[in-house]
Each structure stands twice: as structure tokens, then as C-alpha cells.
């Protein structure tokens, strides 16, 4: 079982270190780790945010444990050299088409949410975001127009792309509360019309899952008004970018949430995927021991579950993380004073 | 001064009637009203949701007072005949390029917000949404692809389009707290790259306004976490659709918020525009006297301010609406039992 560890920039290395501590404590047999550079640090060392050797290492692995990318020193670089191009490159090169973003409150931490407690308590949803298509990876450029320089981007989805992610969404719903909300803008976009038609066709194969459709503006409204109504939210790359961040903000603990980006390839143990905390590189607190490693540790749990078929260990980690969060060991983000390392140690202690 | 009144479907006529009651009470000299069909009702009567005579009536007016469109009986019609095409048609035909959506809580009604009271109290923002460009009005269609049928939409902005809406945004900011947040997705979209460059150029003409840029995913997050940070939010058609609805949901009183869609043409008294409540046609409560007319009445206030140069009357209406909201006269949406007509009457009484 090969894991490529791409810790990246900012607090990425600090939080990834704690995830690896937890992995180590599990003493899984036959595990090999590789480490590679990615993001701003990779640009500085190799002239590219996603060097060929890093990409090959990721490709050869069964799973990628990803930290964070983003470095203020790279902000003035041309777009193709900026750190976030690394994550876009990994998604497309490794065909990571399915982004899973669970958003649920942690018992005892409902107060972190900006929403009223009775609304916050009800949040338990999974955003399933398509990650290889849409306006992200279509043709784009600049052209002349009567109104001067014009920037343009081609937005599209075809039936095969929608079917593939829809199956991921419906299968996830079957393991949850069996409700799927497909979000689009079918009253305006042709891309969404095809999206909706294809989702409806796939739904016929999942009669046990209840399907409804919501326009993205209404979804953004409902996510604030009554987020508890959502189970699985299935959507495209652009709307998923917006709604998954909004959902995380509703939970309130952005520093605690993990994500998976799955490909099509089967690893022998599960599905190839990349796992990362949803928080960024947080340059403002880098190197101060203030970063909360829970999201990185929960990303590791998702990795074990989806890519390595280790459901039991995944559950153990998740229970240990929840136990730690409910204890007096709290990081600065939760009003406590525990350091990154102390939180990681506590999760290890709570593993049993 | 000519006003075209397009009351539309569902509760549109009921709430528009109350706005007209308020207008009548003002006894403005030289006012002429025209009424036209729009939306589902127009489709049923004339075979099109935006009949040519309605469009001409709107074009010939100084302002359009719009109710709502949307009718469940039209849901199965092909897209070009559906009620919402009327509003898209009016926006493009009348070149209504600037959508102003104020979102602020009403004193005493903070509890309507799904956010915690300390966050809700701080919301006082204006979304300035471009309404004539972006992926809404670009070329679009269906094409064959290796993955089957593919829906596509061309997203674009040119410098002139961005400059035009940016001026609207900066001028609005000058009259408010002098802060403008431009929202885009410049790390992914060429459309956004041009957007950002053009906004930065226009900003040079408004040195008194503080400008910052935010990616749309972060904006959706911040709108929930700390909405009080926003003054003017300047954004494109698609992101504006999502963020303005999200902002309204954060305020909590969707039934109370108004909007303006301004064109370029000067009327002699102000700027030509269309004014509408942001709530929809609400077929579930139509004809029961349960609709709250405050949003329609506040839309009238915006009409008087922007299109007819009647700032004083606009302020009077806004004060009367606020006074009514703070009184015991409350509609069903606010836990009271006052009817649509009773609320309208109360606003009239509070006008002085
Ligand atoms: C960094 C950026 C390109 C990326 C995206 O838009 O997908 C990020 O916001 C995310 O959601 O992972
Ligand atoms: C009805 C729909 C086409 C419209 C839009 O997307 O602009 C609506 O959501 C709005 O915001 O006015």
C-alpha cells in the first residue's frame, strides 16, 4: 500500500506531520510512504508548482495525502506558476473527478457555527462535487470585442461526465439518509439542462434514493435557512466550489473538515484518491504550532476508508478525533491553548 | 412621469396593489400608470410570457413596477415560454445592466435571521450585480461529444461591460460606507481575469473607496461567517445571482427585500429602471391575503428614488415601512395575522 505524501505550503507540513503520527500509531503492515514537493515550495525548488516527479509519484501511489498549497510570495507569479495550479493539475492529470466534502457539526461544538444552534445542530450533509469538467477545464482565453478585451470561458458538461458523478452521488446517498439534491441552473444554462436530464436517467437505477432538483441560487439560500434539509448535494465543479465552502462555513469549523477527491482507478484495496483538509495554507499562523491538525487527521481517515479499504481504522480515527474535540485539549482556533503536536498526541492516545 | 405596472403571477398582483395604494396616497402630480401582462398570465392570454405590447409599454415608461412571475402550470412548457423568460427578456431588451439588491436587517426583526443575533445585526450590504452579460446571455447550445450529448454555455465579460457596472458599484459605495468588495474567480476564469483588471482600473477614479477582491467561494463563506464586513459587493451575473440570494437568506426576511434593475437611459427625472420584490410568485399562498406587501412597497420607494428623482418620498415610504414592521401589525410571515391589505393600509397611515 503506497501513499504519496504531499504536504505543500504553510501549515500543510505541520498538520500532515500529525496525520502521519496517527497513521504510524496504527502500525498497518505493508505501508510505504513517499514524500514529494507541491505548491509554492515546489515552485521555489523546481520551478513548477506541480513538478513531473511529484505527479509521477502521485500516479504510482494508491492514495495521496495532501496538506495545503498557497504562498503569499507566489501571488504575483503568472497564473500557471501559482500554487493553486498544483491542485488543479493533480485533479485533471489524475482524473480525480469526484470531490466528497462532508459537512457536519461535531457534538459539543455546535457553538462554532454562525447559525442559530437549532439550525447548526441539524447539519449533516455531503457535497459531491464534479471535479474534472465545467467551466474549470473548458477552453478559455481572451479575445477582442466591441467592448475591448474580452475574457471568455467555455462551460460544458456531457452525459458521460454527469452520469459518472451522479453514480458517486447516489451510491453515497444509499449509505446515508437516501436523499439527493441535484443543484443546477437549468432555467438559464444548457450545461445544466444536460446535467439535469442525465441525473434523472441515473436516478432510475437508484429507486431507494429520493431525488430533488434545486436551482443554485435557491440552494445558496436554503443552505443558510435550513441546512438540515440536505443529505447529499450533487453538483458541478463551479457550483460545488461555492456551495461546499458555504456549507463548511455553516458548520463553522473550517479548520476541522476533511475532503476526498476520488478517481476511477481501483487500487486493489479501494479507489485511488487524494485527501486534504479544506482549510488552506494559513500563512499567518505558519510555524507557530497553532494549526489544528484535526482536518488533516480526518483526511487520513477518509484515505484509509476509500483508497485502502480500511473502514475499521477509519472509524477508529474518527472516534478518536471526536473524543479529542470533546475533551479539554483544544487548539487556539477553539479557544484553547493546545499546540498542533499536543492535539495530534491526544488523538493517538484516544485511538484504542 | 410614466410607470408601467407589470404585476405578473401569483402574489404579484396582490402585493403590487398595496404598493399602488401607497403611491396613490403620495398624490404625486403628473403621474400616469399603464398596466401590462407578464409571465404565466401573459403566456396564457397572449401565447408569450413577454408579449410585444408589454415590452413596448415598459420601453415607453420612465420606470417599471414589477410584481413577480412564476406559475406551476407553466413548469412543463419549453424554456422559451416559461414565465422567468419574461424577466430575462426585460433585462436584455431594456438593457437593465445593474441589479441593486440591498440586504439589511430591520430594527426589531433581527430574530428572523438564521444567523446568531450578533452577526445578523451587523448586516447592511448592497449587492451590485451585472445583469446583461456573463454566462446568462452568451452563446449556448447542445453539441455532440465523445461523452454523448454535451450542453455548453459561453461565459464572458469584456472591459466595457465591467467598467459600466463597476462605476455603478463605486458610486453606490461613495454614498455608503465607502468599501467595495469585487467578487470573482480569477484563479480559474479568464472572464474573471478581465473582470478584475477592469475593476482595478475603474477604482483609480474613486480614491475615496476602499477596494478589495474576493474569490466567490470565499465570499460565500464570509457571507455566513461575518456578513457585517461587506458594504458594496460588486459581482457578475452568475455569482451575483447566488450571492444576492444568500445575502437575503442571511437577513432572514426574504419577504421584505426589494431590488432595482437599472438601465443606462436617463428619464429626465433619474435613471430608467425596473423594480421588484425579491420574493417570487409564491403560488402556495396566492389569493389568501397572506402575502406581505412590504417588499413591493420598498420596491416602489427605490423606483421613486432612482427613476423619478423623488428621494424625499422614497425616504417617507421607507420610514413608514420600518414603522409598520416595528408595530403590532404583522403578516403571517412574521407570526402575526394582518392581511396583505391591512399591512398596506398601515404603511399609508404611517406615511406622514
Ligand atoms: C484553489 C482553487 C482553484 C480551488 C477550486 O476552485 O477548486 C479551491 O477553491 C477548492 O475548492 O479546492
Ligand atoms: C428566474 C431566474 C432566471 C433569475 C436569475 O437567475 O437571474 C432569478 O433567479 C433572479 O435572480 O432574478
UniProtKB/TrEMBL annotation, chains A, B:
It comes from Qipengyuania gaetbuli. Its main location: cytoplasm. InterPro entries: IsoCit/isopropylmalate_DH_CS (IPR019818), IsoPropMal-DH-like_dom (IPR024084), Isopropylmalate_DH (IPR004429). NAD(+) binds at residues 280-292. GO terms for cellular component: cytosol. It holds the Pfam family Iso_dh. Its EC number is 1.1.1.85. Substrate binds at residues 91, 101, 129, 217. Mg(2+) binds at residues 217, 241, 245. Binds 1 Mg(2+) or Mn(2+) ion per subunit. This is 3-isopropylmalate dehydrogenase. The record marks 136, 185 as: Important for catalysis. One of its GO terms (molecular function) is 3-isopropylmalate dehydrogenase activity. Gene3D superfamilies: Isopropylmalate Dehydrogenase (3.40.718.10). Homodimer. It catalyses: (2R,3S)-3-isopropylmalate + NAD(+) = 4-methyl-2-oxopentanoate + CO2 + NADH. Belongs to the isocitrate and isopropylmalate dehydrogenases family. LeuB type 1 subfamily. It is found in: Cytoplasm. Pathway: Amino-acid biosynthesis; L-leucine biosynthesis; L-leucine from 3-methyl-2-oxobutanoate: step 3/4. The lineage of its organism: Bacteria, Pseudomonadati, Pseudomonadota, Alphaproteobacteria, Sphingomonadales. Its cofactor is Mn(2+); Mg(2+). Keywords: Amino-acid biosynthesis, Branched-chain amino acid biosynthesis, Cytoplasm, Leucine biosynthesis, Magnesium, Manganese, Metal-binding, NAD, Oxidoreductase. GO terms for biological process: L-leucine biosynthetic process. Residues 2-347 form the Isopropylmalate dehydrogenase-like domain. Catalyzes the oxidation of 3-carboxy-2-hydroxy-4-methylpentanoate (3-isopropylmalate) to 3-carboxy-4-methyl-2-oxopentanoate. The product decarboxylates to 4-methyl-2 oxopentanoate.
Amino acid at each position: 500500500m503506497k501513499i504519496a505524501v504531499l504536504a505543500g505550503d504553510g501549515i500543510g507540513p505541520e498538520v500532515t506531520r500529525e496525520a502521519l503520527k496517527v497513521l504510524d500509531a496504527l502500525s498497518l503492515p505493508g505501508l510505504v510512504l513517499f514524500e514529494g514537493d507541491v505548491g509554492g515550495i515546489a515552485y521555489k525548488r523546481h520551478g513548477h508548482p506541480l513538478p513531473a516527479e511529484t505527479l509521477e509519484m502521485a500516479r504510482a501511489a494508491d492514495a495521496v495525502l495532501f496538506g495545503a498549497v498557497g504562498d503569499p510570495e507566489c501571488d504575483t507569479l503568472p497564473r500557471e506558476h501559482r500554487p493553486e495550479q498544483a491542485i488543479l493539475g493533480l485533479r485533471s492529470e489524475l482524473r480525480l473527478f469526484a470531490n466528497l466534502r462532508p459537512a457536519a457539526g461535531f457534538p459539543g461544538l455546535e457553538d462554532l457555527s454562525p447559525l442559530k444552534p437549532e439550525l447548526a445542530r441539524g447539519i449533516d450533509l455531503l457535497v459531491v462535487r464534479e471535479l474534472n469538467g465545467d467551466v474549470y477545464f473548458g477552453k478559455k482565453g481572451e479575445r477582442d470585442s466591441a467592448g475591448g478585451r474580452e475574457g471568455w470561458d467555455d462551460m460544458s458538461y456531457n452525459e458521460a461526465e454527469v452520469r459518472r458523478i451522479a453514480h458517486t452521488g447516489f451510491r453515497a446517498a444509499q449509505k446515508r439518509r437516501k436523499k439527493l439534491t441535484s443543484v443546477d441552473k437549468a432555467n438559464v444554462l444548457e450545461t445544466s439542462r444536460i446535467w439535469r436530464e442525465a441525473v434523472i436517467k441515473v436516478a432510475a437505477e437508484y429507486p431507494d434514493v429520493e431525488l430533488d432538483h434545486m436551482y443554485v441560487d435557491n440552494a445558496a439560500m436554503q443552505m443558510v435557512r435550513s441546512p438540515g434539509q440536505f443529505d447529499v448535494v450533487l453538483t458541478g465543479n463551479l457550483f460545488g466550489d461555492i456551495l461546499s465552502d458555504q456549507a463548511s462555513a455553516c458548520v463553522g469549523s473550517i479548520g476541522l473538515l476533511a475532503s476526498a477527491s476520488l478517481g476511477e482507478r481501483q487500487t486493489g484495496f479501494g479507489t485511488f484518491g487524494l485527501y486534504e483538509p479544506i482549510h488552506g495554507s494559513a500563512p499567518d499562523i505558519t510555524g507557530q504550532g497553532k494549526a489544528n491538525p484535526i482536518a488533516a487527521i480526518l483526511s487520513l481517515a477518509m484515505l484509509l476508508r476509500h483508497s485502502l479499504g480500511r473502514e475499521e481504522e477509519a472509524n477508529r480515527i474518527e472516534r478518536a478525533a471526536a473524543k479529542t474535540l470533546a475533551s479539554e485539549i483544544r487548539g487556539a482556533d477553539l479557544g484553547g491553548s493546545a499546540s498542533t503536536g499536543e492535539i495530534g498526541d491526544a488523538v493517538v492516545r484516544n485511538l484504542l
